[in-house]
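User: quick one, sequence for these tokens?
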């Protein structure tokens, strides 16, 4: 419902009367001035509905357009976007891996340089 169980009584009363006014506005004709507690008088009408039978031409059987299969390949604008995205992703990955390899090479060079000097200093003593 629109009102939670924790709402105040004033909120519940406001929502109730708002709904009553909305119902009166939507369901009563403009000429009726009816209070919310009164009922609309029922009026019997003697009009009968007249229905005409119209011969409708038979519709031609519509053929639905063939949907492409799941594994079918169709080249469109989206394909170009995905190709560009894939190539850019691969290029960035290769660049990052090469930078990582260069960084490791620098660390290896530093380690080999430092280890050689430490060994030499120990041998001299």
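Assistant:
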């Amino acid at each position: 419902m629109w009102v939670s169980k924790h709402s105040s009584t004033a909120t519940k009363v406001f929502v109730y009367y708002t709904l009553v006014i909305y119902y009166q506005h939507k369901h009563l004709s403009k000429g009726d001035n009816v209070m919310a507690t009164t009922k609309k008088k029922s009026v019997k009408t003697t009009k009968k509905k007249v229905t005409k039978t119209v011969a409708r031409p038979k519709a031609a059987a519509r053929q639905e357009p063939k949907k492409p299969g799941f594994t079918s390949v169709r080249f469109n604008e989206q394909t170009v976007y995905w190709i560009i995205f894939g190539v850019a992703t691969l290029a960035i990955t290769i660049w990052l891996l090469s930078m990582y390899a260069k960084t490791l090479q620098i660390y290896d060079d530093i380690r080999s340089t430092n280890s050689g000097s430490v060994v030499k200093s120990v041998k001299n003593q």
